[in-house]
Automatic annotation (TrEMBL):
Transmembrane segments: none annotated. It comes from Frankia canadensis. The active site is at 91 (acyl-thioester intermediate), 353 (proton acceptor), 383 (proton acceptor). Its EC number is 2.3.1.16. It comes from the Bacteria. This is 3-ketoacyl-CoA thiolase.
């Protein structure tokens, strides 16, 4: 069976996902088109050779509706012959896009494919796609008569079940900013961030190259002063075990961003004179309790490692999406992972979580970290709405 290899991976720098954020003036189609164009340009690749573009996006409404992947392909100037599709596995959408892309190569259905993702949370806010409607039918309400909680309550329940203190969550969150800021200062993100032209409030233009969500001055002491975000009398009565530790500071911020990964068969890369940087080793998806919602990375990790025939100790780095601080902390405790290898360049608490764009963003950062450190294996996993997770093992080449 042919290898599915990663030839290149790029991302935008993050923008705060609210009005006035650095990328809030950029239409999400143009944001995604930017990374697509940069990806083929960097590799001197004729875009007509791309068999498909698989795109992750969560809020597929408004400016992100009508198959944003295809619209972005055309906006990037790719030939009209290049197709695209847009998928939704919640926060893991573009990680799933990478799975589908690589699996298509392994199956012989693709020679060259791009997996990518985008989310403009400033222009298409969370919840916009449901437009105030209940996405759950009567059978779901019958199965879960007390109702399913939000992800924030799920994070609180995880913190309670694993008995994490507020101090532990805030210390981990401060670490995320410290590591991301240190990586930025060292130039570690220079090879993965591509420029986005933006218009400033005064009408002048600038190039966005620095993650806006990273706060280098963040301290544990400052985080400890923030108020809990999800406490209500209703939830407190239903879940008396919750300690109410989740704040804006130990959660990932609303974020704008896009990312893309160039995937092809090793044979095709050789024919084109392109150097494979890593190969896809193993894949897994898993479901778990939809009330806790964010715990599925644990069974997904066990599943992917079993398929890979490897152990957690074989992994040189792990990218576990920091939707909320308890998620990677519970994952690390349950899997026995080395905390020093967890999100070594910071995670989503600092770098942002642009929903549909996060999966290929994590993959981009993981590939670059393995190359910089000489690591062989990397593991990526992320929690997803509805109680799901993707897990991926890659091998640096």
């Amino acid at each position: 069976m042919a290898d599915a290899v990663i030839v290149d991976a790029v991302r935008t720098a993050s923008g705060r996902g609210k009005p006035g954020g650095a990328l809030s003036g950029v239409h999400p189609v143009e944001l995604l088109a930017t990374v697509l164009g940069q990806l083929v340009s960097r590799n001197d690749l004729d875009p007509a050779l791309v068999d498909d573009v698989i795109t992750g996006c969560v809020s597929q409404a408004g400016e992100q509706s009508a198959n944003i992947g295809r619209t972005a392909v055309l906006s990037a100037g790719f030939p009209e012959s290049v197709p695209a599709t847009t998928i939704d596995r919640q926060c893991g959408s573009s990680q799933q896009a990478a799975h589908f892309a690589a699996q298509g190569v392994l199956a012989g259905a693709y020679d060259i494919v791009i997996a990518c993702g985008v989310e403009s949370m400033s222009r298409v806010p969370m919840g916009f796609s449901t437009a105030g409607q209940d996405p759950n039918g009567p059978s779901i309400r019958a199965r879960y008569p007390e109702g399913l909680a939000s992800q924030g309550i799920g994070a609180e329940l995880i913190a309670a079940r694993w008995k994490f203190t507020r101090d532990e969550l805030d210390a981990f969150s401060a670490r995320s900013h410290e590591l991301a800021a240190a990586a930025a200062r060292a130039g570690d993100f220079a090879g993965e961030i591509v420029p986005v032209e933006i218009t400033l409030p005064d009408g002048t233009t600038a190039t966005h190259l620095v993650d806006e969500t990273v706060r280098p001055a963040t301290t544990f002491e400052a985080l400890s002063k923030l108020r809990p975000s999800f406490h209500t009398e209703q939830w407190a009565a239903r879940f008396p075990e919750i300690g109410w530790h989740i704040t804006a500071g130990n959660s990932s911020p609303l974020t704008d961003g896009a990312s893309a990964v160039l995937i092809m068969s090793a044979e095709r890369a050789n024919e084109l004179g392109l150097r494979p940087r890593a190969r896809f080793h193993s894949f897994a998806v898993a479901g778990d309790d939809p009330l806790l919602m964010l715990t599925a990375p644990i069974p997904a990790t066990r599943k992917v490692l079993a398929r890979a025939g490897l152990t957690i100790d074989d992994m040189d780095a792990y990218e576990v999406n920091e939707a909320f601080a308890p998620v990677p902390l519970a994952w690390a405790r349950d899997t026995g992972a080395d905390p020093a290898r967890l999100n070594p360049r910071g995670g989503a608490i600092a770098l942002g979580h642009a929903l549909g764009g996060s999966g290929t963003r994590l993959l981009t950062t993981l590939v670059n970290h393995l190359e910089a450190t000489g690591g062989r294996y990397g593991l990526q996993t992320m929690c997803e709405g509805g109680g799901m997770a993707n897990a991926t093992v890659i091998e640096r080449l």
